[in-house]
Design goal:
mainly alpha, Four Helix Bundle (Hemerythrin (Met), subunit A), two-stranded antiparallel ribbon, 2 strands, globular
């Protein structure tokens, strides 16, 4: 279904897009970052926290990271301090790129079993599907953040893969 090369491209895309969104979010005031803008998680900061929480949960399953605290209902409160969130995001993006660089075709085959707190059930799905979901989840919620930032007068980078700068 997917290849290690796909994962490497998507991990670089994740890094690029997060740099863009965090750059634009960083110039907002604390009140602007926390303002309810009608998105699923309300604010820019809460949505960014949810993305980081989701990344941490999936990477705990894929690469042995420590699982994020709390459940999906509190995922948007994973980190409330903006400077700590920026630091955690940078560290996570580096680790995601490192993980993607270590993947081979065998890493993406087979199935993964885990307990889903979201639906309170044991799950077992193909690894390739779950890795695709991991990257799709990031993209979905970053699109919400991009829209919120644009509405707030900020200008994040384009989101199209072909426009990703070389060397990311």
């Amino acid at each position: 279904m997917i290849t290690p090369e796909y994962c490497q491209v998507m991990s670089r895309y994740n890094l690029w897009q997060n740099k863009s969104l965090y750059r634009e979010t960083d110039v907002l005031t604390d009140a602007e970052r926390h303002a309810d803008r009608g998105a699923f998680f309300g604010s820019v900061q809460r949505t960014l926290a949810h993305i980081l929480w989701g990344d941490t949960m999936w990477m705990s399953r894929f690469d042995g990271w420590a699982a994020a605290e709390g459940g999906i209902k509190n995922s948007d409160e994973m980190i409330t301090n903006w400077d700590e969130m920026k630091s955690a995001r940078r560290a996570a993006d580096k680790k995601i790129c490192d993980w993607a660089g270590r993947l081979d075709h065998d890493s993406l085959s087979g199935e993964l079993s885990w307990y889903s707190g979201a639906i309170k059930a044991e799950m077992c799905k193909p690894v390739s599907l779950l890795v695709t979901q991991f990257f799709n989840h990031q993209t979905h919620h970053r699109g919400q953040v991009h829209a919120m930032l644009t509405a707030a007068g900020r200008t994040p980078d384009a989101t199209d893969l072909p426009f990703m700068p070389d060397g990311i």
